[in-house]
Amino acid sequence: MPDAFIEFPHHFEIMKPFQRLFTSAFFVGTFMLGFATSTAIAADTIAQTQPVITFLKTVKEGDLKQLKSAFSEKMQAQCKKEGWDKLLQGYQRNFKEVFSDYKLDDFTLSYKGNHEKGRVLVVHKGYYFPSLSVIKEKAEWKLNQH
Question: What is the pTM of this model?
Answer without folding.
Answer: 0.72
